[in-house]
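Recap from last week: sequence in, structure out.
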Amino acid sequence: MRCLLIASLLAGIVGSVSGHRAPVTARKSLGFGPVHPHAVYRSNSHQITVNNFLPQSPDADPLEVARLFIDDILGPNQVQSSYKIRPDSYTDPSTGITHIYVRQVVHGIEVADGNMNINVKDGKILSYGNSFFAGTPPALIATPDSRKLRHLHREYCEDLNAELEKHLSVFTSIQNKQTPMGGQVMAELDASAGHLTHLHSSNCEFDGLADEMASKRPQAIGDIGDMRPALLQFMVAATPKSEMVNVILSKYDEHLAKMSVSGVNHLTPDGEQTYLYVDNVPDTVNPVKASIAYTQVPSEDGSIELVTVWKFEVEMENNWYEAAVSANAPHRIISVVDWASDAPLPVPETPKEPASYNVFAWGINDPSDGNRTLQKENFDGLASPVGWHSLPFVNDPSFKGVKPSNAFYRNTSTTFGNNVFAQENWEGQNAYLNNYRPDAGSTSMYDFQYKPKVSDSDEAMDVARSYINATVTQLFYTSNMIHDLYYRYGFTELAGNFQQYNFGRGGREGDAVIANAQDGSGFNNANFMTPPDGTNGRMRMYLWNTANPYRDGDFEAGIVIHEYSHGLSTRLTGGPLNSGCLGWGESGGMGEGWGDFLATSIRSTANYSDYPMGAWAANRPRGIRNYPYSLDETVNPSTYQTLDKPGYWGVHAIGEVWAQILWLVSQALIEEHGFSETLYPPLPLENGTLPANDFYRPAAGKKPLVPKHGNTLSVQLVINGMKLQPCQPSFFDARDAIVLADEELTGGENFCTLWKAFSLRGLGTDASVQGRTPWGGGIRSNGFATPATCSE
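Predicted structure tokens:
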């Protein structure tokens, strides 16, 4: 209660100081989970050797090397604790590194947060992350004291309470001193306080619900094999609609009876994990996927124990949750991640001429940055072998007719292809197949009018809708360019990219990006939902009512790139089939930061400039972050320790610090290696080889291609680092993974350049954090030291 009072008081005080309307519409999103102090990431060969595991033969099977290594780590515990190597493990053909993902199994049941990622090359363990439960396995049904689980969630909310008190203290101090800078600081407090109160409302509003349900509703307890009470309680906490909460609670028995379960669940499954599907769950848009699992819970004394949970995948209108809820009553939410956040190739029977698009070309960030021009469909023989408008009939969810005999591919004349399904979504719903798309007919010319004009507020939406053809065309073009760019840097089918058809090159298909333009579910925002490989990602772009005429986020490339990059970082971190590795705290923040960094890198030029994020759409020169990205500390003073400041608990603020650090890393590499006018690698020849170019260093045998210039090299190292880092990485883990990526790509020639750049903003070898909490709290210390070899 005290936390709610502080939140209300602070919001009221700060709101009276600043009448500024926040540029981003808040979307309710749950996101929290235990911090695992026993989790480790090792990227130093000395650390791995210390574990008494020596390199195997260079031609040894990487999976066998991993098995030997896992057995060595588990030791005697293997009798009671086992594991399974996940099917999304793969060997990256560009680097030769095999990325192996492992899930812990106890009593035949998966430990949902018991993850290990092992990176192997030439018989050697390059790095590994490990969050396996190392204690004594419990009885089959693990039922710890319910008060421990309650204390866990209470800690999350107490951390928020402390942060709100910090805000109030800062505000009072400024008010008493009446300093000249007070207005600016309080305006910043306005935005951060609003975020904190929203965060608290989303995650702590129903803190006491589990106890209340267990005491007042016996039917809410249920049997451990019946997940419906646990799921229904989760929906009370998850729905953003107050009226839906009242409906669920007032008609609890009725909703419980309507929820039907299909599939067969085994308490001790053999082989692949088995799932149940729960239909008629209130406020969901598809059946909920459920499975029994264990999760790890820290006790107040620092020990870790396993708890039996129901693991749910819940798709809602604006959220897509992966949640762990205790199987025993009282049913408490233990962790929750919102996935929204953010062979030979067949030859087409009828070759299709490349399409043309009247768009803001790749590299132009927004309408203030340049003019629209006609751009050709970018046929990249590696990334999009049959172009952007072709996909197999059997992989096309929109095709309802009869497939022509002997035909394989369907050529479309709309913004619907193998990588992206782009359309309007004025109704703001999840349905998309029948939504409107521009049709170029037989001309393949997507040349449509874009003429926004000042209008009365009542007509603003109509004006925006009048140029929907240009909007969807732009979104389709930008999204496909991102797909092809990231493909060339290693976001391929094996790595979990987004494609309906994978051309027999591995990975799970059927997951093109559903890109919704002018989404009607809100204003001043954008989001991307990233389920595991094989299920469509969903991007929602919004109109921004920050100016007259409205500004259309679909035309700001940086926002589209940022959102798409959530799919990149989520599927590369922890493996394509694990979308729960970037849920909150520093991990969730870096998910935002990578998007900002990549968007800024793509728009940058040889003539250095500072860059804000989202400035055009938000109609704010400083953009939607606290600071522009800059080399100048007076423009952007962010350091690692900035994460301890008031207002830096949110993932966007955390991400801003990470993106700023990566920006300095990139600039250091540019100073060392120069600048490429394009981040896009040269298009391959018809035989798949690359023409002579100045993009890569000369090829050296079977070694991976090394980008020649600093800006292209930095993008490659950041993406390679995502593949090497563990699930739920910290800033330290991600930093070390990038350093390791350089070691494997260039032989470590940029070792000191990277460390010196990281240390500029406090992420040196002596940086530290004490008391890290799930939402990003803790006491951090900047570190400006570099390895001894770099100071010689």
